[in-house]
Amino acid sequence: MNCMETNETVKIGMIALGCNKNQVDAELMLGALEKEGFEIVENAAECDVVIVNTCGFIESAKRESIENILECCQLKEKGYVKLVVVTGCLAERYREEMAELIPEADVILGIGANDEIAASIRQALEGQKVRKFYAPENLEMEGKRILVNYPYYAYIRIADGCDNRCSYCAIPAIRGRYRSRPMENIVEECKAFAEKGVEEFIIIAQDTTRYGEDIYGKRMLPELLRKICKIDGIRWIRILYAYPERVTEELLDVMASEEKIVKYLDIPLQHCSKKVLKAMHRKQSTPAELVAMVKHLRERVPGITLRTTLLTGFPGETEEDFNELCEWVKTMKFERMGAFAYSEEEGTYAAKHYIDDIPQEEKDAFEAMSQAESDASSEKEEITEPVSEKNGTTNNYFRLYSETKNVDYNIAATLRISDSRAIKRLSLRAACILYLVCILVSISASMPNAASKQRARASVTGRFPFSISFNIEYDTPICCDSTFCDMPLYSISSFITSPGCVGVYG
Description:
Oligomer: single chain
Strand order of the largest sheet: 2-1-3-4-5-6
CATH topology of the largest domain: Rossmann fold
CATH architecture of the largest domain: 3-Layer(aba) Sandwich
Low-confidence stretches: 1-7, 380-506
Mean pLDDT: 76
Shape: globular
Number of strands: 22
Structural class: alpha/beta
């Protein structure tokens, strides 16, 4: 006898992996499930059905997704859960392989079938194996969402898919062509979240600067931002994933003039070598041209914080190319930077036409050296800023929050931010363990009552993705740096001494 036959409420839990676009998909699926009468729970041990919303972007993310699926299948074998559901980019990318390799999965849905998740789970509860795949362009981008990060911030996806066709990237094959959402729908979504108390909005797409080209015939990100800025209740707006060649003067005007827009831009540059950029199918800028572009950004938007990503170990990259990259990084002095080793992804232009001839150890060394050069080149000194009693924010756009309601921000903590000096890199598994230890210390030290513990546990469960890495800084905060986006920073001293589970987000 199953849950449907006994009229019991079916409890759904989800493991959401990957980038913030994937998180929005997860929130839409959870919203649809709740609307259909399913109960959403945050403790996997309490679930009837566990959903693994996978990432299939690079090799390490694929491994992480598969490990989580297999762990959930083991829970099913032991009788802890009734069904295992696999969704997301990995399921979409490997449609046939997933069904063959993981027959234990009860439901496998491609991205285009996300809106059928409720019906698919009901079919599986009746004993059917469900496999549904449609064109990724069928992905539903509208609907009720259960915000994972509520009430702190919400990701606002303005478009999905990508038309850039970078030679190393599988996203166009997974997510399909670039598709913008209607502006009025985006504005209404922001208004609804603002009315619920969300104050920070993070604008995302695979390429935010391309927004509107497909449905309006021109780039409309500046106009969209102006409309969102007019919404009451919104305090901060942050822009991610801006492509350098599409950062227009109009966009910079809006960023400089609108107080609600955080002076922050995530602009992936990938490399500085003209030869390497050509092989990547990126704009072939010289190091000098890139320096001039960044200088212009900093002049047009005073105080702007720039984050970029670099790809090292690309096929054909020579030691000379890499040394040029390191020297360029020293010159650029990015406030935030992530360096990642090249991962050959089947089906991409690079996999088909280039030989991946650089050993993995050398790629990893390049990645570490590039990141170290960025850390060493920063001119930022340690900043100590008292937290505003009024709203819990600092002047440099960092925000302090607490899981408890009765916290005097002036007492809770003083925000200490510094750049890396001596970094000890940890493996992902070790980082996860350290993260959980810190959370447990904070809960046990500062949240004695059960209600507070539950709030903290729920919040932590929602915010913690498996795609992050930690940098341990001596006598400085723990920096949680995501592969795809900014994530919270956590101070060891705050965990131990504050009256609440205090973190820093910026």
